[in-house]
Every structure is written in structure tokens, then in C-alpha cells.
Design goal:
single chain, elongated, about 40% helix, alpha/beta, D-Maltodextrin-Binding Protein, domain 2, about 300 residues, about 25% strand, 3 domains, Arc Repressor Mutant, subunit A, three-stranded antiparallel β-sheet
Length: about 300
Amino acid sequence: MTGVPSEIIFSDMLDVKAFVEVATRSSFVKASRRLRMPRATVSRRVARLEERVGVRLFQRTTRSVQITSAGELLLQHASRILHELDGAQLSLEKLSETPSGPVVISAPIILGQALLGQIIDEFVTSHPNCTPELTLTNQKVGLVTEGIDVAFRVGPLTDSALIAKRMGQVEAALYVSSDRAFRDEWQAIEPSSLAGANILVLGNRVAEINPMKLVNEKNEVASVTFEPKLFSTDPQILLPPALSGRGIAVLPTFVAAPFVRQGKLKRVLKNWAVRRSDVHILLPSAKLMRPGVRSFIEIATNQMRLALQS
């Protein structure tokens, strides 16, 4: 690679971008998905870049892709150049002040299914030049390595390098059908009254522990031994049997809220929850934020905080 002019190496920035994506993900398949290119196209662009620089940038086998020492050297320079180009694009977008382009979003499955549809609908209605790309996953993906603009997280935060904005707190609580004759039986204010109750459990048999732990607003903890009638990690599966009175369901409050407003469900033990977790929006950077990303965050913040108060 010594002696090759930089204008030749970086003459095709798509080749360079393909190289950086493969190097970052150690995978041609993942790079092709991120770039929305066929895998063969990504491979061809990397091969063309290797031909220009005259050295191998990756060692390839059928199972792995390993970057070479020459590839590591080029990656340092290429990453810096692409970062500068992104900064230039951001500056141009700020001049127009018109939100446009993709906004890549990641969210946990249950939270995304229940709340993000309405948020994204308002966003694309208000900003038709923007294209949101939403992935629902319970895996904590890397924002920088996966090119994610905004991530929603439920629970404790572990990556201190990211910018975090607290949206509120989500609860999972106990709900029973309002139409059942026995509904008044579950107006007790003490967890002990639920001993032996039929519970529709949000979770799986391996993860759940019987007795169930309940916590109140004073952070006092109570244990209840229950009779499990159904296990599911999806609250939508628990709703039909809960509505028909088959048992008391553990549901996120934002999932149960519409049915409570319609008079179809009632919360059991109002001051007690099965679990409480903070909800945050995470950003890779507060400075390099494109107008489209900023607009999405404003809409998401307003709607999410209202929803979490339900």
C-alpha cells in the first residue's frame, strides 16, 4: 500500500464505505444488509479496493472474515474520512433545516409494538422527507457499530459513553376482567389476598420464580404464592384470557391502559407492581444530530411520556 496516492485509494467512496462496514462487522452479509447492497456487490467493491492498494485487506474463509494488519491501517484513515463526510452532510442539512433522510431506530419488542406505531405515524406525517427504519429486538445492539440513530432501552443502562434521556418509568402490574362476577373479590389492598390465585404470567417458566415478588410505591416488597395458568413473553397472548376472566394477568401498564379506559380490565392492588423499570432514549452523540433525528426525538419524547403516565 506504500506509495499509492490517497486520491487513488479513496477515488470511490462507496468502495471505502463497503470496506469499513465489512471491517466493523467482520461480515460481508451484515455489511450488505446495512448498506442495502447484494453481498456480491459488497465483495466486488472490497476486491476492487484491494486491487487499487495492492494488498489483502481481509483474510477470508467460509466461516470468518479477519482484517489484516494492512486493513487495520487503512481502516483508521477510512473511518476518519467517512466521519468527516458525515459531518459535512450534517452541516449541509442544518443549513436547510428541513428534516430529511433515514432515521434508524431500535427498540425492545413489547415497547415498540405497543407505543412506536403511533409515534412513527406522527413523525412521517409531519416530516414526509424522512424515512424511519425501525428494528424491534430485545438485544442491546451497539448504536455506533450498527449505525443506529436512536435506541429505546428499558431497565438499567450499562453504556456510559452514550447520551441518555429518561422518558419515564414502565410498570408491569396485575389486571383482571371487569366483566367477571368475581371482580369485586380482587379489590383487596394486601398482596396476601392473592395467595393461590390463577395468574397469567408475563415471562417464561424458567425465568419466573414462584412466589411472585410485588413492590409498592415505598419500595416495600411482598411475596405471593400463585397458581400459574399461562406463561407467555408476549402480553398480547395474555390479553384474551385476561379479558374473558380466565385469571389475573401480569401486563405492562401501557398495554393494559386502553382496556382499563374502556372498562374491560381493572387493576388489582393499585399501589403494587410486579416490576418497575426506567425507559430511556439513547443517542450516540448529542452534537452530531441530524434534523430528522432531532425531530423524531421531540415527537417520541412527548408521546412516550404521555403514554408512560397512563
